[in-house]
Structure formats: C-alpha cells, structure tokens
Design goal:
The structure is a homodimer. By secondary structure, chain A is α/β, with parallel strands linked by helices. Chain A is built from 15 helices and 17 strands. The longest helix of chain A has 23 residues. At the A-B interface, α1, α2, β2, α3 and α11 of A face α1, α2, β2, α3 and α11 of B.
C-alpha cells in the first residue's frame, strides 16, 4: 500500500492488552483529529515490549505521515517508548539538562531527593522538540526522524495527554499539517425515538454527500452528525445550516440540543431561564436523577434536592404517599408517582418535581408489571402529568436505571417547553 | 520479527477512527484471552475500507497464529470484513443456503420480505466453520486460510460478540489452542492509600516472578493483580495463596475485597449479614451514594433511601440540621454532616446513616475550605463519627463526587467491621 498523508495512533501499555483498562485515549485523540479534519486510518496497541514498539513505529513510518503515541513515558523499567523510537531510527538519546532540572524540581521534597529512575525522562533525540508536561514528570516530543515522518509522544495518563495535546500538540499540527480543506461537524441530539425509526424518517437526508449525515445510537438517544467539507469553516457552516434546519423540522421536540449540550444541561438551562426550582422523588433510580443534575457546575442555582424513597415506608413518611394508594395500585403505578411528585414539590417547596418508580430488575417482574416498566410524574405550576415506559427486561438493571433518568429529565423538558 | 503463537485483535469500523464510540470490544476480548492464558501482543483498528482491512489481515497472518476480528459483518455496503479476508487469501465466497434460510427467517415479516442486502451475510469461504449468531443476522466464522493461521470473525455489536464468543469461539480456542500451562489471576482491591505509597510498602513482593504482582490505580482504589503460571489451575492457586496472605497482612483493613467485589457490594453484604438498614443524607454528591447502592440487585433488602439535601433549606427542613449550626460552621463542616447523619437516621428509621457535604467545585472554594474538601459522617448504633478528606481542586467536579461516594461507603465499611 502506498504511503498516505494521514495520522496513526499507537497506544503502548501491557495493561491495555490484558484488558485491565479501556483505551479511552485512542478515542479521545481520534475525535480531536476528526475535529481538525486530519485523516486517521489506523490505531494500534502494543505492550511494554521494546522490539514490538520498534516494529510498530517502523511500519507506521512506511504507511503514514504522522504517528501519535501514548504511554510508556514514565520512569519505570517497563516505560520504553522513547528508547524504542530511538532504536527504530538508530538515533542516540541525549540528556536535556533543563528538562532534568524541571523533573528534579517536581519530584524532590524536603525529605527525599528525586529518584534516579526519573532521570531517563530527560532523554531525547538531539533534534526533537519537547512537549512540556505541566502536571506530570513525563514530557513528550515532536520528532521528525526523516523528512516525511513525524512522531509525537504523549504519556498514557489521560489528563496529562489532554493538557499536553491542547497546549502544544494540537497547535503544532494545526500550523504544520493543517488541511487546506475545512471540515466542520455539528451533532444534533434526538431522544424518544429508536434509531431505526428515525433513520427511516430521514432516509433521503442520510444519502446526501456534502454535508454527510450519520446517525449514532447511544443510550436513550440518537446523535446525528452533520459534516461538511468546504474551503473555509464559514462555508462549511453554510452547507450545514439548511440540512440542520430540515432535520430539526422533522424531529421536532424530539431534538433536544446540539454539540456539547446534554439532556441535563438543557433542563438546567431551561429552569435557570425561568428562575424556577426543582426537586426529585426517586425510587428505582435511587438518587440517579439528583446525581446527574449535580454533576454539572451551578446545578445548585435551581436544584434544591429531593427524597430517595427506595422503601415504601419512606414514600409514605417523607413524601406523604397514602398507604392505601400503594396498597391499591402498587408502588410502580401512575397513582404512586403522582403522589410522590406532589409530595416532593410540597415538602421541598420547589416549582417543579420529578418522581420516578419502576422495576429495574432482574427479579420482581410480573406479567402485568414486567421488569423494565417505569412510571414518571412531573408536578409543576400547571398540575401533575404522568408518563409510562417499558424498556424491556432484556436491558439489564443499570441500563434501565440510566434510561429512566434520561426519560425523567426529558419529560420535565417537554413540560418546561410546553409552558414557554 | 518472527511469527509468534499469540492472538491479535483487529477491530473494524470507521466509527472507531472518528472517535464516535469507545472500543469496549477490544478490552473485553483482551480480558477473555488473559483469562484463558493465551498470549495477546497486538490490537489494531482500521476503518470500513477493503484494502486496509486486507493489509491488516495479511500482516497479522505473518505475525501471529490467531486473528480475532470484530465489526464489518452487517448487511450494508460498508460492511466489508468477510470480503476483504477472502480477497487477502484469494479464496472465493460461496453462499450457504442453510445460513441464508436462517437469516430470511430472522428478517422477514408478514408485510415485508427479507432485504436482499442481508444475502451477503450468508457468504463464506468454502471450508470455513460458522459461528452461529443467536441474536442477530450476522454469523461469524472460524477459518484457516493456511495451516498456521486462524481467523475468527465476530460482529461489532457487543452483546452479539459476547454471546457468540462464549457459546462458540471460546470453546473452540480452548479445545484447539489451549495452553498446556494454566494461568490464574486474583485481584485484591485496596482503598484509602495512594498507589505510590502502597507500591513502596510492597516493593519486595512486586519483584517476584511467579506469581507476578502488578498494581493498577483506579479512581480511589488500587488493584493488585496476582498472576501465577503452573501445570494446573489448582497449582497456580497454591502459588497465589501465600502471596495473597502476605499482601492482605500488609494492607490490613485497607484491602476491602477481591475479584468481582466492589466497595458497594462489600458494604451491602456486611449490612445483609447483620440484617441492618442504611439511609443516606447527601449534599455535594446529590444522590450518588444512593444511586451507586441501587445499581446492585437486592439493595432494597438493606437500603431504605435518603434525603438529597443540596440546598441548606432542605438540610434544615428534612434533616433537622439547626440553622445556627450551618451559620456557625458552614454547610461543609463536621458539625453539619453529624447533624445530617443523625437527622437521616432518625427520620428514615435506619440502623445506619451516611452523610456527606463537600465542595465539588469548580468555584466556591476558599483558603480554609478549598475545592475538594469533603466531610463525611457515619451515624450508627455506637454513635456518630466524622471523617474529612481533601481531594484537591485539580481533580475536577465529577471525580471529586465519585471519590466522595467511595469514601463515604468505605467509612461505613470500617465502622461495620469495627463492630463485628
């Protein structure tokens, strides 16, 4: 195969080959490359083995223009990336005194001197450019062992990789390897419709070539990625605009946001705009809605808190659900979630309340109330509404809980929009 | 490099190269291979491109004995795995009438005939063995294009891959490629000590060669993987036993469990054994402890529920924290979490209560109360104890919340153990 102009990713670490950790670095870098329009044709994972790293680096140099490596830059004997690269291109490693000074400052303390093992982290080929590591002791490098091949090395620690990529690697690539064509993507997020049904409804649009539209199903939502190529970002955006408009028209209220937005951020924004507050009453999700809301900074402006009413006694005691309602309809019923939502709104003094009760399984299902059945109530200024979902027993407990959280947030979103 | 006896994994899918999805299949397969003691030296990812798949397959055939592929078995034009493999080894594809019949049964309905596009999923090399797909339309194959190379193909859908691997692929490999040496691993889980400090304390054990001991740091815990090689699983276990004992002795109560146990399951088990119940009072974690507990089946036997007291008003109203205590000490203080834990235990009528209040950031920190400061209280039969952690502002909001959840569960665990 002839050499291409693209970028390869090589992740180094025996823990990846043992399956001890997920390769989140490869995915993160792949997204970054897609965002700046660089072609990316291959990812490889090898262990902490000098010969195999050498072989992988040399093969990449014959195939692609840029190789990005992660991992193997630490101070221990199984960190071999720089050594293997230098051996692959028969280039000696030299100690950079300034780098060693910086590592010494980072690793020494009043009681201990810097470990001698860190010293190898200051070794680089003579003409390599350093990628500084503000948070850790492992700097990376940008090195051209020959004129048509570029190697960029990063540590395996995700936070250090991201910082070094953003501050140094990305800038260098943009300046030196940027494509003449601009690529721009926008992602629309749709919930409350399965991928297959949505695909049928927008089948004609999925066939367009510039921009392209590709659906990706996620837990409880479908992402529609619209990507355009043009001579400038501005022109790419102009190509995307009418397609986005048409997709939004066809999906209606099911399209809840775009790009970095998620259901939680959209719901919090809507509440913030109205200066209204929210409480939750959670049974089968056990606190999952509250936890999801609090994962975003500033949630405290609108989210007051709630009651985790996992046992029926708590539903009665803290939310005032009458015991006869539970007896008559069962804990998983429209009547009970209604009473839970009203109780939470009253007891916490919020403008809105989400209540949720369902069967997350794996046991406890019956013919009329199977595992996966979830009831949701939204109580607010215009009264209390209920909603029912059947996610199916095949989904598994954690997925049913996550889908329930999303569904609860989405029902509140629809109520908030209906009022505006 | 000379050919090895190991297994490679090749994941096929442009969505992986675009960073749209995480490669969970590679990790899952890697774990499976490690569990049966098969060597695994390399993972590769390529897109839906026939030439690149061919190249990757041929290179693997020169390097390794077994290649496992995932993805590219679907009915659409970008599903190219079987075609590329057949081209790589110049073997024609033939339709298997029985397979096509099965696919027809799966895809046809009363209104529609089977899509013709599915027909290509019945094409295989003449001498390939089929890996049946009980849930989907894409069967895989086990094929030996030449005598020292084995290809096994699986779909990219994780649930189908797992089912087909377990029912067919794994069994075949065990029978045909099983190692004579047995490999056995045990993972000890340690919390409340940083990886570097733990490594120093067990430095001598980390140097042993059979069994080997390798530490892996995770969020808030360190896993110690002990792996032994022997002529039988029983003998491998015998090698592990004294090392495990020594590690448990050195880590003491910090070692909370092994293998599939996690902090949540351990805490629920301890409560179940004592037949005691638990309530939570959560501020900065917003329901995270409750959500974590409820993720495990059977949590309802001991977990009653709790109060998400995100706002100070809720801390007073639902947990009875006196307003003067909040005024005097601030919401993030030992005094307030004490009152929260006592309030939750009383109000929910549980044997135990965990209360948590902290600064998850990114804003709101001060010199005396920086972001990352978290107070935890455990109220129980022998009174109320408090604990304080400083996770550091660098950790980020979500990580601080997750560490807080783990720390709260661990504090309860220590109290439960102290009493037994």
């Amino acid at each position: 195969m002839k050499k291409n102009n693209g970028v390869e990713i090589l992740c180094i670490g025996t823990e990846l080959l043992l399956g001890d950790i997920l390769n989140t670095n490869a995915r993160w870098l792949a997204k970054e490359l897609a965002a700046i329009g660089l072609s990316h044709y291959k990812q490889t994972v090898v262990g902490d083995n000098c010969l195999r790293i050498q072989e992988a680096v040399l093969q990449a140099s014959k195939r692609s223009r840029v190789l990005i490596t992660t991992g193997g830059l630490g101070p221990t004997p199984d960190d071999l990336t720089t050594e293997a690269i230098s051996k692959a291109f028969k280039a000696p490693l030299l100690e950079r005194s300034q780098i060693w000074k910086e590592i010494e400052e980072k690793t020494s303390s009043s009681t201990f001197a810097s470990p001698i093992s860190n010293r190898k982290q200051a070794l680089f080929p003579l003409d390599a450019n350093i990628i500084p590591n503000p948070s850790g002791t492992a700097p990376g490098m940008i090195w051209l062992p020959n004129e048509d091949f570029i190697i960029m090395t990063f540590p395996g620690v995700p936070s250090e990789l991201k910082e070094m990529w953003t501050q140094t690697g990305l800038k260098w690539l943009r300046q030196n390897e940027g494509t003449k064509e601009a690529l721009f993507s926008r992602i629309l997020k749709v919930t409350g419709i399965p991928e297959s049904l949505l695909s049928e409804q927008i089948n004609d649009i999925l066939k367009t070539s510039n921009p392209t539209v590709a659906p990706y199903a996620n837990l409880g939502e479908v992402k529609l990625r619209i990507t355009a190529k043009a001579s400038s970002i501005e022109q790419a955006k102009n190509l995307i605009s009418p397609v986005e408009e048409e997709l939004r028209k066809r999906t209606g209220l099911k399209c809840y946001g775009a790009d970095d937005e998620n259901l939680t951020s959209v719901v919090l924004d809507l509440l913030r705009k109205k200066q209204e507050t929210l409480a939750v009453a959670e049974s089968c999700t056990g606190g999952g809605i509250g936890y999801t809301l609090c994962s975003l900074p500033g949630a405290s402006e609108v989210f007051l808190g709630g009651v985790i009413a996992y046992s029926n006694a708590i539903k009665q005691k803290l939310l005032g659900v009458p015991s006869e309602v539970i007896k008559k309809h069962g804990a998983v019923s429209a009547e009970v979630v209604k009473a839970m939502a009203r109780g939470a709104r009253k007891s916490l003094g919020s403008d809105w309340a989400i209540a949720i009760s369902g069967l997350a399984g794996p046991s406890g299902g019956t013919n009329t109330k199977p595992v996966g059945l979830v009831h949701i109530a939204i109580d607010g200024p215009q009264g209390c509404t209920t909603h029912q979902e059947r996610f199916g027993y095949r989904k598994g407990r954690i997925e049913i809980q996550q889908l329930s959280v999303m569904c609860g947030l989405n029902q509140l979103r629809l109520r908030l929009l209906a009022r505006s």
